[in-house]
Amino acid sequence: VSGSWDKTVRIWNATSGKEQHVMKGHSDVVSSVAIQGDTIVSQSGFETRYWNAQTGEALDADEVEASTTSATHTLMNVENRTHLKLSGGIGFTTDHAIWNTARQGSVYVVGDVSGMVHILYVQGNEPET
């Protein structure tokens, strides 16, 4: 899953690299995406949208928020634009400003302004509740 300057969220096939769905609806640049079970959460500016991860269809925000728990939220804090602090005190630093982050399970994806995508596997790092 990716967010873009063109205000879209895209679902990609990880094996083939082909685009599967393009979701439109944001009114600003999509700055963050996360996968929580079968739901994609995307943010732009002060707006949060929810999408079905299988079909790309928009989901009702009230229903999604009621069904998610604090244990499923992505716990990543970007500090000084180049440092990523994960829950449990684990950190990551890039040479360029961090632009996007996403997480699914123990896999963290960090994109920086140089166009580099860093994929981190953090073993034994469970979000705090």
UniProtKB/TrEMBL annotation:
The ranges of the WD repeats are 1-22
Q: Which InterPro entries match?
A: WD40/YVTN_repeat-like_dom_sf, WD40_repeat_dom_sf, WD40_rpt
Task: Recite the UniProt keywords alphabetically.
Answer: Repeat, WD repeat
Entry GO terms, CC: nucleus; transferase complex
Q: Which residues form the signal peptide?
A: none
Q: What is the name listed in the Swiss-Prot or TrEMBL entry for this protein? A: Guanine nucleotide-binding protein subunit beta-like protein
Q: Which organism is it from?
A: Hondaea fermentalgiana
